[in-house]
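REVIEWER CHECKLIST
Item 1: Sequence provided? yes
Item 2: Single chain? yes
Item 3: Sequence as submitted:
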Amino acid sequence: MDRFLRKKILLANKIRDQLILMERQRFESLARRLEHLLDSVEQFKSNYEKLKICLSKHWLSSAQQVALRNTRGGDAFYHDISDIRRHAENCVTTIPPVSEIYAELIQAEKEFDGFEIDETASAISVETDIIELENIYLGKFKIKLYVDSMSDNHRSNLYKVIALDPHPPNCNHSVTHPHVKDDYLCEGDAADAIAAALAGGRICDFFTLVNSVINTYNSGSPYVSLDDWEGESCYECGSSISGDERSYCSSCDNDFCDYCSSYCHICDETKCLRCLSKCPVCGEQVCKSCLTNCPDCDAVLCEDCLKENKCSCKEEQQLEENENDGQTVNSDDQQQSSDGSQENNPTVAA
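Item 4: Structure as written out by the authors:
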């Protein structure tokens, strides 16, 4: 028997084993929900007994409290019933025989390039055609399904969408497709259909659905918008910036977004926030080139404040001058008062 044929048969058996395990997990999940529902029924029975006691003793206020608990419990009970119905419907599945799963593998091999089964037959992968969305080249992708993880509740471990010729946006190299980040696909509205295909062992349908998602662009929920794909990224925060949103800082020679940049109050040039400082006198944002030192006290301040003599040392100097002027005025007043008293008191002078 051909080695690759044996791999496909082994893989088909592994997939069926996983489907059986998945079915058991669905029944176990349903059993847990039924158990929770029975607990709710017991609570209703308890409330019923309490309500009978309240009525027999004419405790109407207490009866109202019991009724209120039933109202809250009724909302939860209705939710539990809906949840149980949904899980019960999920349990109504038919596990296909190995021959049908094998046929799905053959179909996937016909419809996709790069059909591959790994050495342990625990993973299967196919390759897509070159993907280009709205004139943005994204390249080919490999869709790799990890069979041993089909019964895992964590979908991120189930399969990966791997860029074979990555063309990520400048702003985020972990994004290789508007809906793929770190090789994980945001399935969107296709999530239920993808889950149903796997639960039914329809492996070819699974690859077809995933391929359809990555050949479609949903502008409402991308990791990075196609409009920003070829844009620059902010040097500070990494966010994507288009040409008209970009602010260039000549001090550090980098591009920034509007949130990470401002302008100098003196020269009016755009600068990043790192290259701006607050003038300690006026509090305005000023670039380093427009800061200067006071020649009298060597304090750092903006050029405008220096020209307007707003440095703190100037204010102290002015206060000293005012104080000295006040002392001079007082001395002159005292002298005038002394001279005046002598002129007006001739008797004392004699």
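Item 5: Key structural point noted by reviewer: Residues 342-350 have pLDDT under 50 and may be disordered.
Item 6: Recommendation: ____
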